[in-house]
Alanine--tRNA ligase
Amino acid sequence: MDSRSGNQIREDFLRFFEGKGHRRVHSSSLVPVNDPTLLFTNAGMNQFKDVFLGNERRDYTRAVSSQKCVRAGGKHNDLENVGFTRRHHTFFEMLGNFSFGDYFKKDAIAYAWELLTSNHDHCFGIDPSRLYVTIFEGDAKVPRDDEAEKFWIEIGVPKERIFGMGAKDNFWQMGDTGPCGPCSEIFYDMGVEAAEEAGVDKPFPLDDQRYVEVWNLVFMQFDRSSDGTLTPLPKPSIDTGMGLERIAAVLQGVLSNFETDLFTPLISRAEKLVEYDDRSIGSINAFMNVQEVEAYQRRSEASLRIIADHARAATFLISDGVNPANEGRGYVLRKILRRGIRHGRLLGQEKPFMHEMVFAVRDEMQVAYPELKETAERVAKVVLAEEQQFARVMETGSKKWDALIDEHREAQRVRFIQFVQSLELKHHRPLLTFAKEPAANRTGSQGPFIDQYLEGITIANIGRELPQEDAKQAIGFLHVIKGEPISGLKAFHIFETFGMPLDFMVDAARDAGIAFDMEGFERAKAEEQQRARASWKGGSQKSAAPVYRELAKTEFEGYSTLRVDGAKVLALVASGIGVPELKAGELGEVVLDATSFYADSGGQVGDVGWLYSGDHNLVVAEVSGATKPVQGVFAHKVRANQTIAVGDRVDTVVDAATRVATTRNHTGTHLLHAALREVLGKHVKQAGSLNDATRLRFDFSHFAGVAEEELREVEEIVNRQVMANSKVETLVDVPIDVAVNELGAMALFGEKYGEKVRVVTIGGPGGFSTELCGGIHTGATGEIGLVKIVGEGSVSSGVRRVEAVSGTGALDEFRRDFDVARVVGAFVGSGSGSSVESLTPAEALRARITAQEEEMKKLRRELDAVRMKSASASLSDAGASAVEVKGVKVLAQRVDGVEKAQMRELVDSLRIKLGSGVVVLGAAVDGKVSLIVGVTKDLTARVQAGKIVGQLAAQVGGKGGGRPDLAEAGGSDVGSLDSALQGAAEVVGGLLG
């Protein structure tokens, strides 16, 4: 058994390949950049996809990384298996080495074998006799990979340990088109003790549990076209993937990934947080036998593994900017979190605990991912809020679900009773008695209803009072109704109305021994069109049109100039299809070999302007924006003013005023970001932004509303920087390690960075603001003019949004404020006394409004008193106005203008005056009817207020109810109020019988 920790194994892998000339590349975000087909980053090659496709070039041809990955939705969905198998995870780390047209099969195989089997520094020293290798066995299009087999044999792998496998396992492709090729997988023999069937010794590859794939070497050597044709790539490449958790299990000599030191501390922490003690399992249920106790223990251990795994996934996802939501990535995160929380509840922990697991994850993984030190506090708050919200969901939704379960079981029981009665045999009496008795009343009974019936039939009746043939019929019928699923339509109603998670209902139904009608659930969901499925909505989006992928890169010159002359039209695109020309009036996109137009990126919108003809005189097209459909290719969105064709030369001219206004707002976001971190705390991170010519919008991680005084302080800090006219400096081609670790630059959520980056500093590196940014900025902060915050609010759980304006936008805002202040000043007046004159217009208006509200409250109280006095006076002779019905006094009166609270007081007063009787009051207020009925306590056994008011309400177009002694109702038919009151005595008489 190797003594290396998971952290050491990761580091050894990276160092081994650094020693082979590979560049160590940081793990990319779990949120894929510019790839709508992926829900989450799920493989090490994701961040190199554009390099493999030829859309991006880097200054190295060999790379090594440890990539954080999540597989919990869409095509790669391991969520439901997690915790119940040895090797499935939602979050995992993928170790990989990559070659971009440099070395190929021979070196890749040699490196892999050396790392795995050698005892040199940073190698793993695995016994070669426990390793097996697979190669592609070939098909109709691609021959057997004899080349790979040859290289494996050359490094010492016996031929009998090399196995040919089909395309499903050993041919890899990036998509329907593009790079693809055969692969070799390396397997480790965990030993017969890991076999699927205990003690059964099966040869490779017949036992998936015993023989574990630890490394996959992908040989990308073909380019697949849309018609399926495979063309050899001019520069074949290498993409490999090794699961850190799997290789840790191998090296640490354990059968399950969850037994490695990557998980055991987390599982131990989970045990403490949920107060789990396996020594007490046997006492949980006195009716459990040994097998049931063991099954319960297995489920409990699975729950602990689920909590540990899901805590890792949630911590990293939230740290990378994903927040719980009802769709897309946020919905998958919510599902992961709630599944973890639910398994804590299954272990008996009803209180929030999952947020504490965040700190356990931080403590275990901060060496490899130091950003967790900074984000853990914020992540824990997001998780705690989700736990609290889920608790509210469970409180209401669980009751509804339990009621649906009971309803389903009762329906089964009733059907069974009807079936037994239909037998019409004298022998059915014991069975019928058994079926009619509620299962909850049966001492010591275990399991779902139907299982109890089956047990009762087979044990109590066969061979005794019930003939065997009849018993068989009953058992057969029970099996039929046992297989009937719970209503998918009703389950969807609980899901939609109360937020009860689908996976909870499915699992709860399974635990109850009831099938779940998933088809009916999905049908109901589709009909209502209320929610999307738990898959990434971007998955249906198309990647960039093929025409863009074939183009040369656009040279962007817009950092230093607003105009580029003589740019060549490389392509024209209309509706996603390349066209030879755009005619006057047509909309499309123009790709040029050079441009001054900035394209949408980093929150800054693309420039607007014009394309001029080659003679510099005529406007060929108006440009409404620019994007980058693939890395490095700029597509200008245009409306043609005259015909423009591929090969034409044009001048790109950016609208200077719009560009300047946009850059003011962009630089303003950098100031705002730094100021928010200074005021609210270092947990604040950008979660999105939008900078155009009119305003800036900045989303950031923070868990509470920003107080008015905090916003004021942020605004003051920002404008102090503006007035200081600090230099805005851009450093280009800075190695990302230097930028982040030495200059302290902040990397922003959702952005993609290469090995060389642009760093924008305000106040110098390490000064007020230092960020990685590819956008365009002012030369100094003074050019911004002024920044005015105009709004703050919530975007989603744990994400806030601030909106602001700068430059002339700020001036317009102040003009509007001044106009309001002038109106306020005129309204408040200058002759209101010295105390008011010393106030600002806003303070004076607030004081005036407060005074008027107090005056209105006083007048309202006086008016209520007058109304009450008037109503009381009109009812002073209540006893004389009452009529007697069957020995009961009934008083019915109309009291218009009296509020409900006052009507209640009048009812109480009138009941006292009557001594014994029924009081009915009705009022018309604002076109609506109010009714209230009071019954003295001595009469509630004979007649109830709720029944009286119900009948009266029906006459005025309403309904109501209440206690036996007091009930209220409303209605909409004011014209029928008098007749309803006149008929009150008759209603009471009818109820008295």
